[in-house]
Amino acid sequence: MKPLKLTINAFGPYAKPQEIDFTKMDSIYLITGPTGAGKTTIFDAISFALFGETSGSDREQKDLKSDFADGGEVTFVELEFLLHGEIYTIRREPTQTMKGRKTKRNHAVELHLPNEKLLNKVHEVQEKIEELLGLNVEQFRQIVMLPQGEFKKLIESSTEEKERIFRKIFSSKIYKDFQDKLKDKSILMRRELEKYRDRRITLLQKIESGDNLKLKSLVESENMNIQEILLEVKEILEEDKKTLKKLEDDKINKTKEIEDKLKRIEKYKELNNKIQRISDLKLSLESLLSKEEEILSYEKKSLMAKKANEAKLLEENLIGAKNFATRKLEEKLLAQSLIEEKEKTLRDLSKELTLQESKEDERKSLEKKLHSLESQVNVFKEYEEKSYRLQEEEKILKTIEDSLRENYKLKQEKEVNLVDIESFLNENKCVEVDILSLEGKVKEKKEDLNLLRDFYKKIEVLKMNIEKKEELSKEYSIISSNYLKKNNYYEEKSEEIKLESAGILAKALVEGEPCLVCGSIHHPNKARVSASTLSEKELKVLKDDLEKVKANKEELLKSVTAVKVKIDEMLKGVILEGFKKFLGVDDFSIEEIDILQGDITNKGGAIRSELEKDEKELADKNLLLKAKSLKVSDREKILLSIQDVDREIKSLEIKNREVFAKCETLRESKKSLEKSINGEVSSLKELEILIQNTKKSISAMEESLRRIREVERKATIELTSAIKNLENKLEELKEAEIQVKSREEIFYDKLNSLGFTYEVFKESLLDSKDIDVIDNNIKEYRDELLTSREQIKVLEEETLGKEKIDTEEFENEKSILQEKLKEIENEEKIVYSRCDNNSKIVKMVEELSSGIGSKEEKYSIISELSNIANGFNPKKITFERYVLAHHFGEILEAANIRFKAMTNERYYLERKVDITDARKSQGLDFDVYDNYTGKTRSIKSLSGGESFKASLALALGLSDVIGASSGGVRIDTMFIDEGFGTLDPESLEKAIETLLELGAVGKVVGVISHVSELSERIMSRIEVSKDKKGSNIATCES
């Protein structure tokens, strides 16, 4: 990715639109300018355009809008960049508050793709940018853009963090996916294997061990021996099969014995039952014979009932004839009563008809009145219609008059409000000028206050240096005094040694050996050394100690001198300038520093008080300005409203005149109609009710006459019909009486022929069902009597000469045999169930064991592969990390080319191969090897300058390797913010040479730095300047 053009507006310290055309810059360019001017903001703008976040992790969207810009100006960043030979343009606006709007303007973004497609959803653009660059914002900060204070993040990042960065760069997700697939397959196979093992254990736990304690112990053991259990079970199965065969034979024998016993018992029971049956039948026969006379009486009763039933139908016919004659008599009497009732009704109707016919004159009078009333209806309708219209118009008139009064009142209120607004606007007509003046004062005072704070801190630094100088001076006095004492002591002892040199030489004389001075071999009077005199060795120790003290004294003197020089520079420079600027003091002594610092504090307090007062006044003025703006708007609204009210009043006055005229016309029409209205009623409704009542009266009279005539006609017809009906009933009664007499003669003739009197006939009568019951009982009695005699005869022949046999002993023997058979069957069921259960379990366990063995072999292979691939190995390295470690080695190799050059071959980076913490992932960590010490140490132990060089070398090495790889990420650009200030001159020169080499191979590098050497070597520059209105950008092309 190479930036082509950057446009920023109202962003950070840049109030006005700024544009940087990177195509006109060299491949290496420098961004310079004073502190706080906005150099880093250029990197922030590039990072924000791409990812919606700044280059540093401590700046948020809400802080991006320029404080120098007008509140209505939209803050945005637009970046045009080249990637894979195609041009992309992205424009992004942060969340911001706009002047005059209550709601915030939301974060917005537009990405124009080479195919002219536009993406404008934040998450959609974010995904696309990360897809195009192959990096997220954190990775971008660590690889492409090294922000101020964050350049060490990549070199100090963990293996996992590097893995996430390299995964996208080197397209290693395929290896991660392979790891995951192996892991998932291993887990799946392990679960399946465990399921099979659990199933096998469950089956083994269901084995029935019976009385076999060994098998029971094996099954209940925590660590089951499958093969041993199976062998033991198979032995039990063989024993159980033998037992089953023996039990089957026992069961057959016992069953045969029981069957023999049952046959004998059944034979004896049958004989006993026959003997008992003969006895029972004889008792039953005696009982039947005792009922003979009763049966004879029933036979007689049945015969009499059957004869009586022959005459019963004739009696019923007679009774029916008598009932019919009685009904005909009742009908005749009813017909006579009806004739009398109809004759009376007809007489009453004749009287009523005469009365109604006498009201004819009254009815004609009502018809005449009705005609007169109907002629008044139209007059009343017109009168009421005029009255209603007059009421409605009067209501409208009242509404118009009320509206007029309200509008007059409303106009008056608005005119009063307008006067108040004009008065307020006149009073505050200069508020804008006051605000501008106050804003200038506030800004000026804030700047003064900030300058005072900075100066106050410099005074504190001066005081610290003065205190440090005093401490160092005291320490120097002590060391100087100590040195003087030690020096005097040393010189004293040195002089003693010179004076005692003869004694020292005499110490070395040996009798018989020549003296080095005189050559004599005899030494009768040797010179002696004083006891307090030191040896040469002791004197050397004193001298070494003296030299150390001297070196410390000289070092301390240098420190004192350096601090004194720093103090003098500050006193003659920034401190003097500050006191002169803020207090007007041209000359002062060190002793006056505290007093002058107090004056600075007081001055700051005074400025702060004035600032607070001005800020409060500015806030009040801003409130007045808002109120003024509202008042101006209100004035316009009120003026428009008064115009609307005037138009409304004029319209209402016209309507008022029109409606008043209508009311007068309707009143005249109403008076004219009142003269022609009949005084009997006062309204149309009363007239209509009177007409309706009159009509009802006429109709009622006509209806009564018609109804009575109709009723009289019907009554005459009904009387004639009743007389005819009576004649018919008399004829029918006569015929019924003849029929009764005829049937009475037939019935009594039949009784005489049967030999019955009427009383005997009634006593002998029975229902046919009762007769059937008697006949059935008689038949059953005769049949039962015959059957009993025959059965007794047969049974006596079969049991002739035989007696009853007691079967209890046989029953007991049978029960004992059955109990033994039951025991055999129960034992057989238990053994068979155990045998069947254990056989099935053995078969299933053997099948499962076979499957488990196969699965264990496969799982062993997959599990081992998964563990190795997922880092469960001595090196704690995953498959993906192993592949990335190869690339990482290439990166370190490329980085070391520059890192060695920048450190004069002292350092080089090497990947860690030993496990330092078994709990953490390994493989992408590295240390630094120091050629001076011959030891490897942690990368975190490097100094600030060394860390910067390592970070720069690693970033460049990463860029080289990525450029040579076939991954989706391409890094053609690098941005470096500061860091060069930590380098010594030699290291700085090496770093500059490295950057210039990058430019030579087509890499684009943007550098922010205050280091003068960079300005001398890098001709292409972006210069940032600042003033009270904000910052500006100018480009300087080579």
Automatic annotation (TrEMBL):
GO terms classed as biological process:
double-strand break repair
Keyword Coiled coil assigned: yes
Q: Which regions form coiled coils?
A: 219-288, 332-383, 532-559, 608-746, 771-827
Which parts of the sequence belong to the Rad50/SbcC-type AAA domain?
Answer: 5-208
* InterPro entries linked: P-loop_NTPase, Rad50/SbcC_AAA
Instruction: List keywords of the entry alphabetically.
Output: Coiled coil
Q: Name one GO molecular function term.
A: ATP hydrolysis activity
Q: Name one Pfam family in it.
A: AAA_23
| Family under the similarity heading | Belongs to the SMC family. SbcC subfamily.
Subunit structure of this entry?
Heterodimer of SbcC and SbcD.
**PANTHER family noted in UniProt:** ABC TRANSPORTER ABCH.3
- What name has this protein been given in UniProt? Nuclease SbcCD subunit C
Q: Which gene encodes it?
A: sbcC
